[in-house]
Amino acid sequence: MVTTTPSSPPDQKQKSNPLLKFLGKIPWTWVITFTYLAFLLILPIIALIVKSVSEPFESFWKTATSPLALSSYEVTFVTAFAAAAINGVFGTLIAWVIVRYDFFGKRFLEAVVDLPFALPTAVAGLTLATVYSEKGWLGSLFAANGVIGALFPPTGIKMAFSRIGVWLAMMFISLPFIVRTVQPVLTELEKEIEEAAWSLGASKFQTFMQVILPPLTPAILTGVALGFSRAVGEYGSTVIIASNTPFKDLITPVLIFQRLEQYDYVGATVIGFVMLLISFVSLLAINLLQAWSKRYG
């Protein structure tokens, strides 16, 4: 008589499967998080990379290193870094004033700081172009016949429709990132530590440099990194306040859009990939610097 061994139930097979055990231990929050990031960020980036590297290397290199593309990289990243660095100083000062002082109009100042978050970038560019044009309220001061422009003959300083205009637009849209990143850290600092430093004979400058600045440095670097990233990808305001002249003030996002208007999708993808790579390397360097500053603090 032939005897057969009963097969194990399906649930026992699932319990004995290592893969199913592993999947069963993954929290559902992780699944939702990675699924959301995959569809929103990871897959589009992978598609951009695959599209760009599908071109022959010679064609890819020729497009990525063309004189026009190199000039746009320099204008975009150098100007964005200058705007973020200056906002790192003045944004910290603004956060200091908001946290440490109570004055009439404080709520209004905080609303003004957050205005670039809510204001459409095209409106911001139009406003800046109006104010800083040669006939604008501030631009007229820097024109050839203006109070400040007369010191720089014969043309004065052209604020709008120049690289300076791109810099102003990048400063405008990146300022809130520095202020709102530094503000909560500054709020948590105990003022008694400063008073203790003063009681030990430290001057206000020494107290700021040795007591206040070290714990603020990671937050400042984080704000600068966020502002830099925001400025690099800015399009709406810069395209209005700049003249978009090649080799002068043409930024990479505008160059990509111009390639798309010319139906050069491959060229736009290649330049976009290079911009993505440079941005990633820049942010990685800033994050490493931030990690070092945290250990130092």
Poorly predicted tracts of residues: none
What structural class do you assign from the helix and strand content? Answer: mainly alpha
Q: Write the CATH homologous superfamily.
A: MetI-like
- Tell me the number of structural domains: 1
Separate helix tally: 14
| Mean residue pLDDT | 86
Can you tell me the overall shape? flat
Report the strand count. 0
The helix content, as a percent range, equals over 70%
In the CATH hierarchy, the architecture is Orthogonal Bundle
Radius of gyration: 26 Å
Quote the beta fraction: under 5%
Secondary-structure element pattern, one letter each: HHHHHHHHHHHHHH
- CATH topology (level 3) name: MetI-like fold
Instruction: Give the termini distance in whole angstroms.
Output: 80 Å
Question: How many strands, what sense, and barrel or not for the largest sheet?
Answer: none
Give the C-level CATH assignment. Answer: Mainly Alpha
Protein model, in words:
Helix content is about 75%, strand content about 0%. The protein is mainly α and about 300 residues long. The protein has a single domain, classed as MetI-like fold (Orthogonal Bundle). The protein is flat. The chain starts with 9 loop residues before the first helix and ends with a helix.
Summary tags:
297 residues, mainly alpha, MetI-like fold, 14 helices, 75% helix
